[in-house]
From TrEMBL:
Name of the molecule in the record: 4-hydroxy-tetrahydrodipicolinate synthase
Active-site feature positions: 133, 161
Gene Ontology BP annotations: diaminopimelate biosynthetic process; lysine biosynthetic process via diaminopimelate
Site (L-lysine inhibitor binding): residue numbering on this chain: 49, 80, 84, 106
Keyword Amino-acid biosynthesis appears in the UniProt entry: yes
Organism encoding this protein: Solimonas marina
Family: Belongs to the DapA family.
Residues annotated for pyruvate binding in this entry: 45, 204
Pathway: Amino-acid biosynthesis; L-lysine biosynthesis via DAP pathway; (S)-tetrahydrodipicolinate from L-aspartate: step 3/4
InterPro entries documented for this protein: Aldolase_TIM, DapA, DapA-like, Schiff_base-form_aldolases_AS, Schiff_base-form_aldolases_CS
Subunit structure: Homotetramer; dimer of dimers.
Length: 292
């Protein structure tokens, strides 16, 4: 089981939108040296929506190669077409990823039975550990705990990233009859600390992009039940948890990494550079967390 602080890594880009492979390589090395426990390549924070298929697969392939098996790599392979998700997941496996993270189909708004059949088809088509990803605020689709419980019985569905940010949902998930090795990950940095203290296994994180060491230490403390240490670290991180979402992700986190001289300022349309009115707010959050 993959546990701890799992960074949903950005895809560095030049101002013209071209992928900056050298910066990607440097980010992977930095995360490994800072203690990040695993990397999600081309999740939604990695701008999966605007990378073409060849770029998508190449980013996964390079992150796998760069990691050199030092930490696990999870390939973001979700799509709102089941056949496309199967193709991307197969490509992620072929690239050497340790697992695949698949967001619920967006825009389609499938019913719960549709979600079940979607993930079942992928799990049966590709022999790779599959992590479900529920983020209703972005997709317009909410995978309910009962559906998670059904899917968890399938052989290679091994976990869930839950990004609703709702403690009632956390409690409902923890109360399910899940296999012992089924992993529950927070996908909401602001509530991740408490979710892990309650029994989740880690956090698939945006904040870890800019504060990897502190996120790792917070997750370790929370998993060990050290509430005092976990909450102290989380308090320092809370300004980032909040202000890295002053505009839609990944706009603020890419601005922050540029401010830290880690990546160029590139995004792809329809995303644009963060409005200057937010810059001091994000800069101050970076300072509060010790990132700059």
């Amino acid at each position: 089981m993959i546990k701890g602080s799992i960074v949903a890594i950005v895809t560095p880009m030049f101002p013209d939108g071209a992928v900056d492979w050298d910066s990607l390589s440097a980010l992977v090395e930095w995360h490994i040296s800072e203690g990040t426990d695993a990397i999600v390549a081309v999740g939604t924070t990695g701008e999966s929506a605007t990378l073409d298929v060849d770029e998508h697969i190449e980013v996964i392939r390079r992150v796998v190669k760069l990691s050199k098996k030092r930490i696990p790599v999870i390939a973001g392979t979700g799509a709102n077409s089941t056949s496309e998700a199967i193709e991307l997941t197969q490509a992620g496996k072929d690239a050497g990823a340790d697992a695949a993270l698949l967001v619920t189909p967006y825009y389609n708004k499938p019913p719960q039975e549709g979600l079940y059949r979607h993930y079942k088809a992928i799990a049966e088509a590709v022999d790779i550990p599959v992590i479900l990803y529920n983020v209703p605020g972005r997709t317009g689709c909410d995978m309910l705990p009962a559906t998670v419980e059904r899917l968890a019985q399938l052989k290679n569905i091994v976990g869930l990233k839950e990004a609703k940010g709702d403690f009632d949902r956390v409690k409902d998930l923890l109360a399910l009859d899940l296999p012992r090795d089924f992993a529950l990950y927070s996908g909401d940095d602001a509530t991740a600390c408490e979710s892990i203290l309650m029994g989740f296994h880690g956090d698939i994180s945006v904040t870890a992009n800019v504060a990897p060491r502190k996120m790792h230490e917070m997750c370790v403390a929370a998993a060990a039940g050290d509430r005092k240490k976990a909450e102290r670290l989380d308090t320092e991180l809370q300004p980032l948890h909040k202000h890295l979402f002053v505009e839609p992700n990944p706009i603020p986190v890419k601005w922050a990494l540029n401010e830290m001289n880690k990546i160029p300022a590139g995004l792809r349309l329809p995303l644009v550079t963060m409005d200057p009115s937010h810059q001091d707010t994000v800069r101050n959050a970076l300072r509060a967390a010790g990132a700059i």
